[in-house]
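Input record, target 12 of the design panel.
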């Protein structure tokens, strides 16, 4: 098919806010929708109303909340805490089913940026402070979405770890930190799950806009990692479209109306047409990929403007029905089983809440008089604000669910806007006084967490903490249930609670899920994917976040989250990986078997030693125990969520590869494994290691090239260099009999300097030695 220059230019920019541009009847417009934890299907301004049902929408200035109802699954902060990639995959597939039903071709998610600071306003959309966990969970979501032929768009590439000044700020980060912390999740997802699309970030990375960064979008993403999909911009992230196209950005979203400038740039020789060919080709390829999916009636689902076609939708549903899929439409939204998806949202929410502390009050024993307190029990906070905001198909509150199950008393206790209300407080304290247990719902106010700005404190609203104190005085046992998308501080109040259940933002079925956990029909099984620090000042990036004058320095380097706390031994409120269940688990029988060069199989047994069925999240860390740390003390390299009946055991098997031991070497420009010992740690959190085994790696054989500026020590440690140098120095004055301190001093001196330091080495001799080493290696 021959496209004109104008057509090619038009393909590389959107045809509207939520769709790509159609070209004649050969390339259809594709619909793109947020993402990540539910489908936010909006009408394009160019779409006439009625093409997508907007019932249930609530208007807002930016129009973010005006969308068709869809299941609001637990946001990534919660889903990540499930540590269950299988579950994440099922949620991904459900997202794709809804996307298909709503005429959406590409879901704008998952978001896989690393939680560098707990203050990042968008942390609720991200999985973890750890790249391995983020990569595994993100890949599962992508695989789930794409299993039904809908495209996933991994975002925001890269180093978008704050909202402050996000459209301009330069994330200034060193190469090793970039490679080890901020890129591996993207790399893993690209390599393992093959996303159809990647969304570039708004921010600059080391001074260059991500949308214009050729190394990032082309050399690394495609060249090194083999990405074969499309790169689109974040909404409005393109500043210079010619530069962006040249860097490898294929699709600008939404359109800026600059197609003519692109055509002119090609005509004037400022942009090679071949660049446009490649980008337009990738848009066409994406269209081919998503059009090929079963149930997507090619070319019929939408017209040129990307509008839903009612006839095509009916045909699509009929096809689903023929395939035996249940397309019951109990809530009137069409195309998927609304009840089944709500149930999946409840299962995911149940798997995601983290029981931080429990003196035995949970699960609530039958027959107790239970007071439910806190407005958030009645008015749940279940998602954050911004582009991920979903209009849910229904909404469960914990209060209704608890009421239906056991009959409880209730008092709201505080106002959602944080204003003091002594009357509400008094009523709540009285209600607590008449109960055996008070279940108090606390959390961040709705307006505190959003895309577009960061938080400034980890604290809960003061009125809520004051209420807790008074409730604890009135009632002997208080269970605190938290609702927050970013970590909140528990220091200073948690001693008043017998149990704390961290409920994050759990999506539309979170209320019912919390009731399941409080009542013990299910055991909690979520684990922290981020450290809860004691104080904000303990957060490693505290002094750098969120930067100033257009720059944010990643001065803490690789020491993010537990990598910092566990290396320094800082006291934390709750460590990474922590979470209690209603049972207990024992670990035994650690075996590390070598299966190849720098490949091992780690095996151990997990046993449920308690009296209830529950799930354990067994975690595998690789540790380097150094007196003077030169790298994070340990890093997560594997995990397994194991469900066990009381008394039952399971043998867990986790692979370990060379990459799990490797560090990024700036000198080499690649990964490097140093020979030597390391420790395989297996445990229930980063601070609860139960089994350890010391293993030795032979390294990867890499030896840095020797030059005249390599030190005497480096020369002597080098297998060839050491030999040739010793031969050369045999009998040289001052070599034998040197005292130890002098020798140590000498070891740090570059070899070439010895032309004046008396080993009898001339510049020529050093050159000869360098050449001799090179010869031996070639
Ligand atoms: C967000 C993206 C989102 C896009 C479209 C941007 O503001 O950063 O995550 O996908 O809007 O809504």
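The sequence produced for target 12 reads:
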């Amino acid at each position: 098919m021959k496209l004109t220059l104008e057509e090619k230019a038009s393909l590389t920019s959107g045809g509207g806010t939520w769709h790509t541009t159609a070209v004649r009847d050969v390339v259809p417009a594709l619909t793109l929708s947020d993402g990540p934890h539910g489908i936010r299907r909006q009408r394009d301004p160019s779409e006439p109303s009625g093409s997508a049902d907007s019932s249930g929408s609530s208007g807002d200035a930016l129009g973010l909340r005006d969308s068709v109802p869809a299941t609001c699954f637990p946001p990534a902060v919660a889903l990540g805490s499930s540590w269950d990639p299988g579950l994440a995959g099922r949620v991904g597939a459900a997202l794709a089913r809804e996307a298909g039903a709503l005429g959406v071709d590409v879901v704008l998610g998952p978001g896989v940026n690393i939680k560098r600071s707990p203050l990042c306003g968008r942390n609720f959309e991200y999985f973890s402070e750890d790249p391995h966990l983020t990569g595994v969970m993100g890949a599962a979501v992508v695989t789930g979405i794409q299993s039904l032929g809908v495209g996933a768009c991994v975002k925001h590439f890269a180093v978008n770890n704050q909202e402050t000044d996000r459209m301009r700020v330069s994330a200034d980060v060193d190469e090793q930190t970039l490679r080890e912390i901020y890129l591996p999740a993207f790399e893993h997802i690209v390599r393992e799950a093959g996303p159809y699309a990647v969304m570039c970030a708004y921010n600059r990375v080391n001074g260059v806009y991500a949308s214009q960064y050729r190394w990032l979008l082309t050399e690394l993403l495609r060249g090194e990692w083999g990405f074969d999909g499309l790169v689109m911009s974040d909404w409005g992230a393109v500043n210079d479209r010619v530069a962006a196209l040249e860097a490898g950005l294929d699709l600008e979203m939404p359109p800026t109306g600059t197609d003519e400038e692109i055509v002119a740039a090609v005509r004037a020789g400022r942009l090679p047409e071949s660049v446009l060919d490649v980008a337009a080709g990738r848009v066409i390829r994406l269209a081919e990929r998503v059009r090929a999916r079963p149930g997507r009636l090619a070319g019929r689902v939408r017209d040129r403007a990307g509008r839903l076609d009612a006839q095509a939708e009916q045909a699509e549903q009929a096809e689903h029905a023929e395939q035996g899929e249940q397309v019951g439409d109990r809530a009137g939204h069409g195309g998927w089983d609304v009840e089944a998806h709500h149930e999946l949202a409840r299962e995911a929410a149940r798997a995601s809440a983290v029981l931080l502390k429990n003196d035995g009050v949970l699960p609530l024993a039958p027959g107790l008089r239970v007071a439910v307190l806190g407005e958030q029990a009645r008015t749940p906070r279940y998602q954050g604000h911004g582009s991920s905001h979903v209009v849910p198909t229904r909404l469960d509150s914990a209060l209704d669910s608890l009421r239906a199950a056991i009959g409880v008393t209730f008092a709201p206790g505080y106002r959602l806007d944080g204003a003091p209300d002594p009357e509400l407080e008094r009523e709540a304290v009285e209600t607590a006084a008449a109960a055996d247990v008070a279940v108090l719902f606390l959390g961040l106010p709705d307006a505190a967490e959003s895309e577009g700005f960061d938080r400034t404190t980890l604290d809960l609203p003061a009125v809520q903490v004051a209420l807790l104190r008074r409730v604890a005085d009135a009632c002997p046992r208080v269970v605190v249930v938290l609702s927050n998308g970013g970590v909140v501080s528990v220091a200073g109040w948690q001693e008043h609670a017998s149990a704390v259940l961290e409920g994050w933002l759990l999506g539309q079925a979170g209320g019912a899920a919390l009731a399941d956990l409080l009542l013990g029909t299910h055991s909690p099984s979520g684990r922290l994917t981020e450290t809860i620090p004691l104080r904000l000042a303990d957060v490693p990036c505290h002094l750098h976040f969120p930067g100033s004058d257009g720059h944010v320095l990643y001065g803490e380097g690789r020491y993010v989250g537990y990598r910092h706390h566990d290396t320094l031994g800082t006291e934390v409120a709750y460590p990474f990986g922590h979470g209690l269940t209603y049972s207990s688990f024992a670990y035994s029988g650690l075996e590390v078997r070598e299966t190849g060069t720098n490949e091992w199989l780690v095996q151990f047994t997990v046993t449920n030693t308690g009296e209830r069925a529950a799930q354990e999240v067994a975690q595998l860390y690789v540790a380097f125990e150094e007196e003077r740390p030169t790298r994070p003390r340990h890093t997560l390299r594997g995990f397994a969520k194991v469900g066990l009946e009381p008394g039952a055991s399971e043998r867990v098997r986790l692979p370990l590869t060379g990459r799990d031991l490797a560090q990024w070497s700036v000198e080499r420009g690649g990964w490097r494994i140093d020979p030597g010992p390391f420790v395989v740690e297996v445990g229930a959190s980063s601070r609860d290691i139960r089994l350890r085994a010391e293993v030795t790696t032979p390294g990867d054989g890499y030896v840095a090239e020797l030059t005249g500026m390599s030190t005497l020590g480096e020369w002597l440690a080098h297998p060839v260099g050491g030999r040739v140098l010793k031969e050369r120095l045999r009998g040289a004055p001052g070599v034998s009999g040197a005292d130890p301190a002098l020798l140590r001093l000498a070891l740090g001196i570059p070899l070439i300097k010895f032309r004046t330091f008396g080993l009898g080495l001339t510049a020529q001799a050093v050159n000869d030695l360098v050449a001799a080493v090179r010869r031996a290696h070639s």
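The two ends are 50 Å apart (CA to CA).
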